Amino acid sequence: MRYLFIFLAGALGSLLANRGIAVFNDAVRPIVPEYREGRMSRVEFATTTFGLSFGLVIGFGLPYSLLYSIILVHCLWLGTDIIGTLFPAGTEEKWYKDKKSLYGAIGAAAAGGIYGIGLLAGLTGLVAFFQSLPVNVFDAWMSISDPITYAFIAFPIVAICKDYGWKKAAISALVVILARQLFVKLGNGYEDAITMFAGIALLIVFAATDKSEAKTDMASLFSDRIKNIRKNIVWIAAMGAVYGVACNIGLLMEGPTSLGQVAEGDIANATATTIARALSFIPLKGLTSLTTGTFVTDGFGFTATVGLIAPNAVVAGILGAVVMSLEALSLVLVAKLFDNFPGIKKSADSMRDAMTALLEVALLAGSMIAAGSMAGPLGYLVVAAFYCVNKLLKKPVTSLAVGPLATIGVALLANILAVVGLF
């Protein structure tokens, strides 16, 4: 079942990218109209997509997927963005009647599906390899995620501080801390999720009352682009169904934080994390979808939520199709929301920045803990050195991947030293 659905997820991801229906990389989405409207050649489009995506596959997607044996969606769908654009695709309305476009779509789907299978098979082999090494690294690797959940909860407070000042942030922090400790006292196990939603609720209240931004009329301005997404709703629903099932069976997950939580069996907090991330990414994903006429491969993110809470794979598939379709169809409402409450867009951007900053700190701390568990002082040395040296490189690795990559390096180094008798 896992191989079937990774094939379908890869095939659909490549097909949607090939046809310009949906792409995963937020940086690629704005250039799709450049090709669709004849201002960019297919070669230029493919080359640009490769340049924007390949480094993230290697430096961001693979490390997390390897650490937890669950595939981070970035690892799959950044790759299928590249594969989809490598195959030919015409811009005609009835593309299936054009041989070049039809063969290109079929080739992209087949290559994307094979890529997905190779990814899953390769990860399984790598996990087996690491488990057979003389130094146990898997138990230590699990420590990477320990600080993430608790640090991640603070992102609404950081966003409030950025947009509305330290006084409101301090008051908000006091409220959410009291809420958390109250639920700890009650002992129901949902204190982390409640803390996160309390912070988000306060941020939304501040944002909804912020009238400092100018109003616009986005729904009318991009009506043609919205129609382009709506006419492909069947393909988007199909992707939603596959993605919902993939999340339900522990095959794919939408972000590093929820991935680690699912791997540890913490479904309640993983669900809360998917909701929080989805809310914060609506402005970015909604705006790029509105302005380009190209949707997002994984939707706004609520498909992962229903995939996690669904009781079985069948229900997850149905809910996934419905939710992703509704996300695509809601773009007019999203545009009107931005028009009426421009402060929400500003705060959501700040939420995303706060998430990234806190995740970077938490991953570095978790990586230090994991590396220390594996190799003691040597582990701390390697992670700290790699983090600092990376900042001096001409083309540094993305900060979010530095800790996990360094931890993998420590695991390899410790085992090599063990083989030669120096560890």
List its salient traits.
2 domains; two-stranded parallel sheet; two-stranded parallel ribbon; 423 residues; 21 helices
Which secondary structure elements does this structure contain, and how are they paired or packed?
Elements: H1 2-19, E1 22-23, H2 32-36, H3 42-68, E2 71-72, H4 73-86, H5 99-131, H6 138-141, H7 148-152, H8 155-164, H9 166-186, H10 191-208, H11 218-221, H12 223-230, H13 233-248, E3 252-253, H14 256-263, H15 267-292, E4 295-296, H16 302-309, H17 313-329, H18 331-340, H19 342-375, H20 377-390, H21 399-419
Parallel strand pairs: 1-4, 2-3
Spell out the helices and strands N to C.
HEHHEHHHHHHHHHHEHHEHHHHHH
Give me the number of helical elements.
21
Distance separating the two termini: 41 Å
Radius of gyration: 22 Å
Q: How many separate domains?
A: 2
Looking across the biggest beta sheet, what order are the strands in?
1-4
Low-confidence stretches: none
Instruction: Give the tally of β-strands.
Output: 4
Described by the principal axes of the CA atoms, the overall outline is: globular
Helix and strand content put the structural class at mainly alpha
- What is the strand content? under 5%
Report helical residue fraction: over 70%
Largest sheet: 2 strands, parallel
Mean pLDDT across residues = 86
